Amino acid sequence: PIxxxxxxxxxxxxxxxxxxxxxxxxxRYARENGKAYADVTVIVAHLGGGISVKLHHNGRIEDCVNxxxxxxxxxxxxxxxxxxxxxxxxxxxxxxxSMMKLVKNQGGLMAHLGTTDSRKAEEMxxxxxxxxxxxxxxMALNVCxxxxxxxxxxxxxxDAILLTGGIAYxxxxx
Length: 174
What we know:
Layout (H helix, E strand, L loop, with lengths): L18 H14 L9 E6 L3 E7 L2 E6 L16 H8 L6 H10 L2 H6 L4 H9 L3 H21 L9 E5 L10
Parallel strand pairs: 1-4
Antiparallel strand pairs: 1-2, 2-3
Helix pairs in contact: 5-6
């Protein structure tokens, strides 16, 4: 319950986003290390079209930074400055649907680089595109910051940090 409280009553943090994928990674880690899932403490970062970071402890997901509040990703805007979001929401022509489409499908790498394919972003970087490098590095740095954000829930005592999802195959990011 402590991880769901926000600064406004009635608005609670949600533990959604990539739960099955991160749990499978945590279960695999436990199995490969001869332990029960309930006996491992891992932080799992799912790096895909959306990015979420989960703390698995005592056999359950205890904390989560989902793709609404955490790092931006290939498709999602991630956590945004609240004042800017409020102002943007009230611009002429904006609706709930258009704002949701913007932050869920047209944000992140798509907004900055015109692609949701991290491999294309890396090709741009390899071709010398410094803007692409800056944006991609910012995405990776934000993943790291959000891994650190949930570690205090277990006093930083984690057995492992696991990466899963398509971008986890990127040597550049990992």
